[in-house]
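Re-running the complex after MR caught last week's input typo. The corrected sequence lines follow. Everything else is unchanged.
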Amino acid sequence: MAGLRIEHLYKRYENDGKKKNAVKNDYAVKDLNLVADQGEFIALLGPSGCGKTTTLRMTAGLEDITKGEIYIGDTLVNNLHPKDRHIGLAFEDYAMYPPLTVYDNIAFNLKAKGVDKAEIDKRVREIAPLMQCDDLLDKMPVKLSGGQKQRVNIARAIIRRPELLLMDEPLSHLDGKARQAMRTEIKRLINDIKCTTIYVTHDQLEAMSLADKIAIINFGVLQQYGTPAEVYDDPVNEFVASFIGEPPMNIIETTIIGEGDHFLFTFANSNLKIAVPERYNNVVSNGFKCKMGVRPMDVLIGGADSKGTPEEVATFENLGDERRIGIHVGSSLLMLITDDETRYKAGDIIKLEVRGEKTHLFDIETGNRIRA
Amino acid sequence: MNTASNRLSRVIQNGLLAIYAIFALFPLIWMIILSFKSDAQMYNTTFIFTPTLANYKAVLFESDYLTYMLDSLIVSGGAVVVSVVAGVPAAYALARYNFKKKEDIAFQILSFKFAPEILVVLPLFMIYQKLHIYDTYFGLIWVYQLISMPLLIWVVRGYFEDISVEIEYAAQVDGYNWYQIFFKNLIPLIKPGLVSAALLAFIFAWNSFTFPLMLGGTNIQPITVAITKFLGTDSAHYGQLAVASAISALPAIIFALCIQKHLVRGLSFGAVKG
Amino acid sequence: MSRIQLENVTKKFGSVTALKNVSLDIKDKEFFVLFGPAGAGKTTILNCIAGIQLPEEGVVKFDGEIVNLVDAAHRDTAMVFENYALYPQMTVYDNMASPLRSKLYKKDEDYIKTKIQEVAAMMKMENLLERLPSQLSNGQKQRVAMGRALVRSPRVYLMDEPLAHLDAKLRNAMRTELKEIQANFGTTSIYVTHDFMEAMSLGDRIAIINEGEVIQIGTGDEIYYMPCNEFVAQLMGDPEINLISGTLAKSEDGYTFTMEGAQKTYELPKEKELFAKLGELGLSKVDIGMRPQNLLYSFEPKEGYIKCSVYSYESIGNKSVIVAETSGLQLRMIAPNGLSVKIDQDIYVDMQLDHAMFFDAGTKGYLTRYNEAAVRAIAAEQEG
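Corrected-run output:
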């Protein structure tokens, strides 16, 4: 049984006739297909304005669907009122009822449904410790910190025992450590209550940390849908590759040359040469132009007897936990991360080795991954 | 189906707006119509009549109307100038500095506007008599700025508060002294607010009636007071009255049109942020 | 060319003391970082140096000369503000030209033009010069704010959290860029931040500020490897250092450490200097500081490893953090991205104790660490 199924979903906002030459395919969401299994935690990830919140709002029933179908469980919900969709909502702005105590805020929805008092009390007392807000129950919302408000907000969303929990950037108002701590709490909570969850965020770290599967969306179009490991190690295009990971994947234009029976990546204005993995032998040719992508962790500093290309250090950053080195490759800066304890400085020469098998090829025009 | 219902609702919206516009503009339109009617046709015609410029001739050339107009300009303009010169620094001080009773003072300034004019005008009248500033430009400007200053200070203060203090620090570090910073960096930023506040202050001052009625005499008669002259004890020249009113509304309209850009931005911006 | 000194500077705002007896000696051409949590007083120090605020007590010296009574305009500093403080009514070009057009630092327009173009090229913002600040993204505003300072050749550059309002990714990229152009500064620079990566990456030396006081001054390595107390140890590093309370006891030919709670006893790896120091101190209650990368984990039971359960497994970008829990103690450690780890599953953890730091459990002050001599040597070299 699917927790959530979205089929060929489209959203188009009516422009009120002002933009006469508005482009035909002016879709906020375009042909989106997504299946979340029961109990899965799905992150909708993308830059602001990519359509991820619109998708969430359509799922919640707060926004009309232009075309397509949304199923929660096995029920088609296109024409159901939000209150009948069995969903819990936790949004970015906490939107609590200020004159009510935390207890009443959490209980509000159940009261509105006419659940009897004893049952409400039981459920609130059940949920509160989960969200670590048992000692907040008698407080008024104005007295709470951002993190506490967000806890109450989530408690309020899950007390209805929804079939589907929808969260829209619930952590974006929190900073630094509070955010990190709250992230862990959400993860553990969802693990406990085993509720299918859709989580909208623009922060790839949140998505990577929380989600079972990540749907990466750009310009209303689903780019890739997969586990964190899949989107990290096997991105379908340049956008996904550079959006996931920090520092982002190094992506540099390259011309491939043939040398004997193997091929090499070469770069304009740089003497750097990297072996092309053999599996690409039948898709590349001498003079083939594309973009090469490699994660900073997969660029290494060779030892004294290394056959790597000698390169000049452009930037050296000692960050304590790790060290980052930037090297000019033409006009791009190739970043590498190392645990090596040596303290380099700009101008030092290091031997650069790249884990060739970890390189990815991207089409220059479309940005799509070129696969072997 | 969707678009059809949209169109219908748009038609209804616009229709309602049009009806309201006619309702709101009606007195103005009526006044313009009256100004072209002769006394003879005043009461027995509505929209169909023989237009005449006689009223205009009478008001503009056969009375001291232009003198009154000038009085109004001097007094209202003077009050606005005084308000700007004294009010902008006051607003800056209220926005930037911390001093004892700051909010009390700010409120005190605003409270000038609370008292009904009719209430304060009698004591003012007696003070003015004693100080011999009754029926002088100085006296009237002084009392007019009571109307314009609080408005200006409160609007402009909001604008100063919206400018982050770091901008001033940045300019200091850049090597500018306070006066240069004030005129080069701050004034341009508060300009929309300043202009709209000054315009509103001008209109309020221009429309003021009680103060000039009591504190002005035969020497100085702003237009609001002078218009009453067209209502004689035995006859009412409604046509001339209409002409005088119509023309007296002109300056405010002209100013408003000239600075419309600032006005819209200034009022809306100030409203949200202030 | 400037040495900046603060001597016993105290600054109060009403009844709140923002700075307590702050003394700093910043060398000529040094890139000096003021690092600490929000509200620590870092910006106030910067404002006192810029002349925007006047300290109640103490003196500020530029090249040995007391400047307390010199106003901000005449101190010849260039400042980058946290909120950028761009002049909204001026184009980027005019913003950058502003300091060079003031009476004090007046330059002719030709010079201004060349200089702005030079800085714009360095900051990669040539295409922004005609825009207004309202038409810029945060990252671009940040560049302009920086550019406005860099067009000048002041006695000192003051930078107040210039990257704070950028999102994590852009912040890291900008930091690297800043590191690259840093070499061109050639001028004393003071940089305020609450991000330890910026502090570590950019600072020749770092001063840790907390609650208006200077806690520690040293190079990045010095502070990272020999933090003067647990507070500093926790500030430096993401994920945070593991602090493990326990008891030291003398054994046959060395020391043992017994973890509180988990009740496991470790034989401390032998190091003559360390044992001598521990003997000298004679403390029994200590906290051990272990950086997350010095913890080992295994999903299979292993000799000497303590059994824990996974509390969380989260990505921090290019790698992930596992938090393991055992009897109330949470241990953070580094793992690669993309492992299939289930919450609450078993995990076995060991500590590489030869990287341990020792803190006094009572005062939370630094006692000693393994390899202290080597760390001191690195620090001495960097200072020199």
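None of the earlier attempt is carried over here. Chain B is about 75% helix and 0% strand. Chain B has a mean pLDDT of 85.
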